[in-house]
Amino acid sequence: VVKVNDVCYMWSADDNIAAKGEYGGAVTTLMKYFLDNNVVDAVLAVEKAADLYDAVPTLITDSGDIEKSAGSLHCGTLNLAKVVERYLDGLKDIKIAVTCKPCDAMTLRELIKKGRVQEDNLIMVGVNCGGTMPPNKTRIMIDEVFNLDPDDVVKEEIAKGKLIIETTNGEKEISIDELEEEGWGRRTNCQRCEVNIPSMADIALGNWGVIGPLAGKATFVEVFSEKGAEILDKIVSAGVVNVEEANPKGVEIRAKIDQSMVKLANKAKDRDYGDLEGDILSIFNEFSEEFSRCMKCFGCREACPICYCSDCILESGPDWITKGLIPAAPLFHLGRAVHMADSCTNCGQCEEVCPSEISVAHFWGVINDKIKTIYGYTSGIEDNSILSPLSNYQDKGLRG
Ligand code: FAD
Ligand code: SF4
């Protein structure tokens, strides 16, 4: 019987899915099992659209279509929680399983806490994540740094600290550290992200820790909830996956890689937040020049998977947000900061869409860190029983 915290190696018993999957196709097989056995009405995953820089959400109801979602898209910077809340009506009438990177899972947790997603109708199948890369910039990097045609790329992979770009003519690899020192590589919010294993999902799957003959052919599975344990029990009994005991050395290695990724994230935070001291207003002031470029297109608010007012007071709103000023009045962002300070998961959607190239996620990262330092609270991580600090507000210095 499977229990919470159990770990194992797993790969698909279906040779076709095993070949198409990133590391043995366990996730795709799980999803297929859910659809074939009416465990869910639909699967929400990610598929390649125009090319591998173009990752889009896909809602699959027919298990015959599941293979199109197999594989990992490292330029897939999207956040699936927004699709669940906004386009699937918070799962009021549909039961789904969703593949989640840690920032998808953390955002779903925040939405569940706020009563905007029905947890009973959701199975979160987590995938570990060491970061995603911005699609357009990655194309430029492949052209200028790798000296390859981005359209010739058949696969990209991050392994052993290197970005490996594969074309039909072979592979080329460059260390991620080297790329990021030159301003390429992962999105900056991913560089600062400390959560690599989505322990807030029901189960999490990833390649770290798979050693020996199964390396590259199977994925490491860890169970994080009773729901996850039940799922694993069912698919193992059904014989749709192959399972092997995880090698204890592999378990150790996985923990070490996770720790070194956390260290790397803290280094990136020092680089980006190091000299940002003081209360929320003084931090806001540090960004005032950047925010002065804001043209109030509201793209960041629209892209945000958590922003919650159906009628935004900051748009229709009060006279204190004066329109038509150059530089623009900064209160839109201060207003958002007040609304979102305890729920932003720094998924980076805001920064990606900003036409004025304002480092919005950088600002939010500093705010998130401040909340963590002052209140010991991290959005998306704490379980449902722990109230957010602002719902039980005690001024401990956030206002200075
Ligand atoms: P598959 O059967 O191939 O299924 C993969 C699933 O992931 C599919 O459902 C697919 O739709 C979904 N998916 C693909 N791209 C995305 C995306 N961008 N966002 C959300 N879902 C997506 N594992 C590690 O141990 N260390 C890492 O550093 C690491 N980084 C990753 C980074 C990204 C962006 C992704 C998507 C995955 C990463 N993984 C990492 C997990 C690993 O690549 C495999 O997904 C995992 O081992 C499961 O393998 P599989 O063969 O069972 O998956
Ligand atoms: Fe301002 Fe950029 Fe947000 Fe548009 S997306 S409202 S320009 S910060």
Account of the 3D structure:
By secondary structure, the chain is an alpha/beta fold. The protein contains 16 helices and eleven strands. The strands form two sheets. The protein has an eight-stranded mixed beta sheet, sandwiched between helices. It has a three-stranded antiparallel beta sheet with strand order 6-7-8. A hairpin with a 6-residue loop joins strand 2 and strand 3. Helix 3 packs parallel to helix 4.
For the largest beta sheet, what order do the strands appear in spatially?
A: 3-2-4-5-9-10-1-11
Order of helices and strands: EHHEEHEHEHEEEHHEEHEHHHHHHHH
Number of E strands: 11
Name the bound molecules: flavin-adenine dinucleotide, iron/sulfur cluster
Cα distance, first to last residue? 52 Å
**Percentage of β-strand residues:** 15-25%
Domain tally:
3
Architecture of the largest domain, CATH level 2? 3-Layer(aba) Sandwich
Radius of gyration: 21 Å
Structural class: alpha/beta
Index terms:
400 residues; alpha/beta; Aspartate Aminotransferase, domain 2; Nuclear Transport Factor 2, Chain: A; 3 domains; 8-stranded mixed β-sheet; 3-stranded antiparallel β-sheet; 37% helix; 16% strand; globular; binds flavin-adenine dinucleotide; binds iron/sulfur cluster
